[in-house]
Design a protein that fits this description.
Layout (H helix, E strand, L loop, with lengths): L19 H18 L2 H10 L4 E2 H8 L3 H13 L3 E6 L2 E6 L2 H14 L7
Antiparallel strand pairs: 1-3, 2-3
Length: 119
C-alpha cells in the first residue's frame, strides 16, 4: 500500500503520522505473503494458477515440477489458504483463493516478465 494511502491514527501526534500498530499488523501479513512467494516452485505454481485452475497432472507437465515437490508445495499453499481445490472425478483442481496474492502476482509479472518487443 502506498504511504500516502496508509490509514492514519485517530490519536496521531502529528498531521500525517502513520498508525504504527496497524502498520505492524499489515507488515506481518505482507511478510507472510512474501515468504510464500519466496519459493521458486510455489511462485511458478501461483503464476500458472493465476491464469486458470489446473489439476496436478497439468501443473506437473506445464511447469516441469516433479510430483512429490508439486504435492508438497500445493500442501503449503492449501494450508495457508492461498489455494482452494475442487474434485472432478479422480482429478483435483487447484485455484487461487486469495485475491491479494493475485494482485501481488500481477505486479511481479509486470516488473519481471515484460512482454517481448517486436521490431
Amino acid at each position: 500500500m502506498p504511504v500516502d494511502t496508509l490509514p492514519l491514527s485517530a490519536d496521531a501526534p502529528a498531521a500525517g503520522a502513520i498508525d504504527t500498530q496497524r502498520l505492524r499488523q499489515a507488515a506481518s501479513s505482507a511478510v507472510a505473503a512474501l515468504k510464500l512467494l519466496g519459493n521458486e516452485d510455489r511462485l511458478l505454481l501461483l503464476c500458472q494458477l493465476s491464469q486458470s485452475e489446473c489439476c496436478v497432472g497439468d501443473l506437473e507437465s506445464l511447469l516441469g515440477i516433479r510430483q512429490p515437490t508439486l504435492s508438497q508445495q500445493l500442501a503449503v499453499l492449501r494450508a495457508d489458504g492461498v489455494v482452494q481445490t475442487r474434485r472432478d472425478g479422480k482429478k483435483i483442481f487447484y485455484r487461487i483463493a486469495d485475491p491479494a496474492i493475485l494482485e501481488i502476482l500481477a505486479v511481479l509479472y509486470r516488473l519481471y516478465c515484460p512482454e517481448e518487443q517486436t521490431s
